[in-house]
Amino acid sequence: MAVSKTKKVDFIKFLRVWCKEQSLKLPEHHKKIAKWLEDLFYSDNRRGLLLAFRSSGKSTIVGLFCSWLLYINPNLRILVVAADTILAKKMVRNIKRIVELHPLLEDIRPKKKQEWASGSFTIERSLALRDPSVMAVGLGANATGSRADVIICDDVEVPKNCDTYQKRFDLREKLTELNFILVPKGLQIYIGTPHTLDTIYKV
To answer: Are the C-beta atoms of residues 187 and 149 closer than 8 Å to each other?
Structure first.
């Protein structure tokens, strides 16, 4: 698929290029998720909730979406939050791999990978920013000194942290701290699967 590198492509085309490179199929529900994510990014609504069945590939699509955001604006700072650091790093490793391999991301790959770790990495960008391009944190980790333009809450609700009222209360309290990290007009997306009737994902 011939794609111009000078003109930015939309997310669905970015996704199609990746699928072709990786010899992957693009299921219909992934196209719907991709359209929803791009529409959310360009809308005035800066909060999103993506709920999907287990093994639906939602985290994979969101990882590609984060890579596309860096393609659109290399100066963005993305924070990935999960129930624990191991889960958050899994998403960040996925994003890093896409940056390394996607043919449209060649220009943002750093010439010297000084900040290229499993839990955070920094791409080629024009601004001198203190925070990395993408960083992983687990809930409860001290990240209040950080700033993010985009926060991805990936599976912040898991069976071990939501099986009692007190745990759910504590979880909600921890998540409110993200308000001090997200910049004004920043984008925050929750993705996950409910694990209890009184899920934090209730709206």
So the answer is: yes
Residue 70 CA: distances (Å) to CA of 58, 107, 139, 177: 19, 11, 24, 24
- Answer whether residue 168 shows pLDDT above 50: yes
Provide mean pLDDT across the span 110-130: 88
Its pTM surpasses 0.85: yes
Specify the length of the chain in residues.
203
Rounded Cα–Cα distance for residues 122 and 86 (Å): 19
Q: How far apart are CA 57 and CA 70, in angstroms?
A: 20
Show me where the domains of the chain are located. Answer: 11-192
CA distance 69 to 87: 21
How buried is residue 127: exposed, middle or buried, by Cβ count under 10 Å (0-12/13-18/19+)? exposed
Residue 130's CB is within 10 A of a number of other CB atoms, namely: 8
- Assess contact for 188 and 48: CB atoms under 8 A: yes
Order of strands, sheet of 47-51, starting from the edge strand that comes earlier in the sequence: 47-51, 182-192, 148-154, 78-82, 134-138, 120-121
**Are the CB atoms for 173 and 137 separated by under 8 Å?**
no
CATH architecture of 11-192: 3-Layer(aba) Sandwich (3.40)
